[in-house]
Amino acid sequence: MIHPTAHVSPESVLADDVTVGPFTVIHAGVELGPGTTVGSHCVLGEPGPGGPQPLSIGAGATIRSHCVLYAGSTFAERLETGHHATIREGVQAGTNLRVGTHADLQGDCRIGEYVRCHSSVFVAKGSRLGDFAWLFPRVVLTDDPRPPSDELQAPVIEEYAVLGAGAVILPGRVVGAGAVVAAGSVVAVDVPAGALSVGVPARVSRSAAEIRMGDGSPAYPWRTRFHRGYPQDVIDRRLDA
Amino acid sequence: MIHPTAHVSPESVLADDVTVGPFTVIHAGVELGPGTTVGSHCVLGEPGPGGPQPLSIGAGATIRSHCVLYAGSTFAERLETGHHATIREGVQAGTNLRVGTHADLQGDCRIGEYVRCHSSVFVAKGSRLGDFAWLFPRVVLTDDPRPPSDELQAPVIEEYAVLGAGAVILPGRVVGAGAVVAAGSVVAVDVPAGALSVGVPARVSRSAAEIRMGDGSPAYPWRTRFHRGYPQDVIDRRLDA
Amino acid sequence: MIHPTAHVSPESVLADDVTVGPFTVIHAGVELGPGTTVGSHCVLGEPGPGGPQPLSIGAGATIRSHCVLYAGSTFAERLETGHHATIREGVQAGTNLRVGTHADLQGDCRIGEYVRCHSSVFVAKGSRLGDFAWLFPRVVLTDDPRPPSDELQAPVIEEYAVLGAGAVILPGRVVGAGAVVAAGSVVAVDVPAGALSVGVPARVSRSAAEIRMGDGSPAYPWRTRFHRGYPQDVIDRRLDA
Asked: What is the β-pairing status of strands A98-99 and A116-117?
């Protein structure tokens, strides 16, 4: 159902069962897959510096109110956003991306499957986020080693890496697969795969595998441990990773 | 006055003198007390995972533009929000709560009276905020000790505690009554009542009572010292606390 | 072109070629210069505590969707904002100010020319930002030395200063001309002109002039080095500064 107050371009392509909320604007070139819900006060297909381009959003998406998604990106199935999120042009994202409330993705990012960006995450232009990477609230990925230079280097966050709340990742840094960055840390050197990095500036403290639950059992690698509501087939696939 | 462009459900209950701005959406089950003003582009009563539920907002509220308040919460008198704030379901809040611009309350919180959450504060699901607690800009309350675990523990901020700008409170930590957390600190251990905690990770530096004004007089406990525009009867009540 | 769904007060003054997007509200007393574009879902001229006042926005402005600009401010030519930004009353800003997505300027600020506030920057009431100052994502300028006191002291950021992502500037601190504050730093003492300040709390590490590019050439002072898309006449003027 398209709310009568929404402005939907006749040059967009919406599956039959798409829902669009009040006061939402959908520009030309937007494609919304079946089962998608778009909240109120959103803007989809905002023209970027490259002008009008397609914005392709796969089946089963949930886009909450007040979000702005630029033209020129492609999202696979089941994109889910919080409120007031913005996603600039040139993003290529795999299935089941979640982008939290007030998050700000600056465009040209390559994003794997089941990536989670929590509230108010800031992702610099050109960043790469591997499958199942988790960015907790207020994480910042930066891209300018000598600001305000013209030589930008975005970070790379590898698969299953976890960035704790408020962590700042400096330009060009690589956070390895399954690594954990503690909340509030500032990452100035690469974090090896599977390491726990802590502090300002962050230093490798130990292997993430040494982190224990209250009962003494190992907490990491988290893909063998935590479910967080993933479907069983996804959990099974993770365990094989 | 309800702006003619607003969409107000006939199943909501608005006091006679409520003002609703342009392009605002009010869902079924919302109750707004007398003297309440709702700005433009808001969404009140957004259905959460529990489906349609009441959202009760007491008398004299001011809700500024672009806010999203979910169904399933109760706010006492004189709620005041900045712009673009979001408040999820299950919040129980006392009188005179202020929630700043771009703040994000994740729901199921218990909030006392006269609590102040400044701009861009992030409050994890299930957090508890005591009477007159102050969270300054960009404070983050986290809830996951081993992210992305399934075992969440929200922080507790006791009455009259002050969290400086950008402070990060780690899961399950308790900031005691009247304690002060310095700006930019990361709180990994409980902060005793009346203590000043500073640093990354934060350590108790001294008693907050030792902090002096420029003239040498004690600044804390702040409830005996700072007015910040509270009405006289509230100041009198604080002094007795 | 004014979108037919926009609400534009007959007591505002819009140049002939102004563009206003859907669902935007423009209050009485707003003046928009020629060549200005206002996106959708904005509020311009929101009345502040001082009641209705003029809001003057110079020629060539671009104000993106979901922004809120209060009455009682004056912006020179070519203001540019991201999405969801808020700017409170009493701001006096020079030409070419950029205010990023989710940024929050608290009012009564004095802002020079070509100032850049990136995404989610928080600028305390009364702050002063010199010409060509750069505030990168999530920088916080605070104003209360003993929160929640009544004695506010806003920071001063001098011309060509650079504040890295996530930096917190404490109340009343001065960041000198051409100084660089590293990402994630908490600035508790004044930063001398031309210095690099790093850490929590931040300490002067060395002269910014010692920071080198990959090829060994000096990166700073950045006004002699980086273009970042400024027009040639602005670059020439900077070199003379």
From this structure: parallel
Residues 6+ apart with CB under 8 A from C124: C106, C141, C142, C143, C152, C154, C155, C171
Measured between beta carbons, the chain C residues lying within 8 angstroms of B181 are none
Q: Which of A44, A70, A81, A86 to mutate to test the interface with C (most CBs of C within 10 A)?
A: A86
Nearest CA in chain A to C208: A146
Enumerate long-range contacts of A80-89, CB under 8 Å, 24 or more apart: A82/A119, A82/B86, A83/A39, A83/B68, A83/B86, A84/B66, A84/B68, A84/B84, A84/B86, A84/B102, A84/C66, A84/C84, A84/C102, A86/C82, A86/C83, A86/C84, A86/C101, A86/C102, A88/A48, A88/A125, A89/A48, A89/A49, A89/A50, A89/A53
Q: Which of B65, B132, B217 to mutate to test the interface with C (most CBs of C within 10 A)?
A: B65
- H or E, element range at A196: strand A195-198
What is the C-alpha to C-alpha distance for residues C206 and A118, in angstroms, rounded to an integer?
36
Residues of chain B in contact with residue C43, where contact means CB-CB under 8 angstroms, are 39-41, 65
First to last CA, chain C: 40
Min CA distance, A199 vs chain B (Å)?
7
Edge-to-edge strand list for the sheet holding A186-187: A7-8, A25-26, A43-46, A68-70, A86-87, A104-105, A122-123, A140-141, A168-169, A186-187
Cα–Cα distance, B229 to B35 (Å, whole number): 20
Stretch B79-96: mean pLDDT, rounded?
98
Summarize pLDDT for C110-143 with one digit per residue, the tens.
999 999 999 999 999 999 999 999 999 999 999 9
Q: What residue in B sits closest to A181 (Cα-Cα)? A: B147
Residue A231 CA to residue C156 CA, distance in Å, equals: 52
Residues of chain C contacting residue A122, judged by C-beta atoms under 8 Å apart: 119-120, 137-138, 165
Which residue type occupies A160?
A: Y
The β-bridge relationship of strands A168-169 and C156-157 is: unpaired
ipTM here = 0.97
H helix or E strand, kind and range, residue A204: strand A203-207
Q: How far is the C-alpha of A84 from the C-alpha of A75, rounded, in Å?
A: 18
Compute φ and ψ for C175, nearest 5 degrees.
Answer: -105, 115
* B positions 132-191 inside 8 Å of A (CB): 138, 140, 142, 144, 146-151, 166, 168, 170, 186
DSSP H stretches of helix in B2-117: none
Q: Does A238 touch chain B (CB under 8 A)?
A: no
Q: Is A237 helix (H, G, I), strand (E, B) or coil?
A: helix
Query: In this complex, which of A39, A65, A213 lies closest to B146 when CB atoms are compared?
Result: A213
Element (H, E) at B239: helix B232-239
Kindly report, residue by residue over C194-222, the tens digit of the pLDDT: 999 999 999 999 999 999 998 999 999 99
The sign of the torsion formed by the CA atoms of B39, B41, B44, B48 equals negative
Q: Do B120 and A119 touch (CB under 8 A)?
A: no
* Residue A99 bridge partners (DSSP): A81, A117
Bridge partners, residue C53, by sequence: none
Q: How far is B215 from chain C (nearest CA, A)?
A: 12
Domains contained in chain A, CATH given: 1-102 (2.160.10.10), 130-241 (2.160.10.10)
Assess whether pLDDT exceeds 80 at residue A241: no
Q: Which of B43, B104, B150 sits opposite A120 (nearest CB)?
A: B104
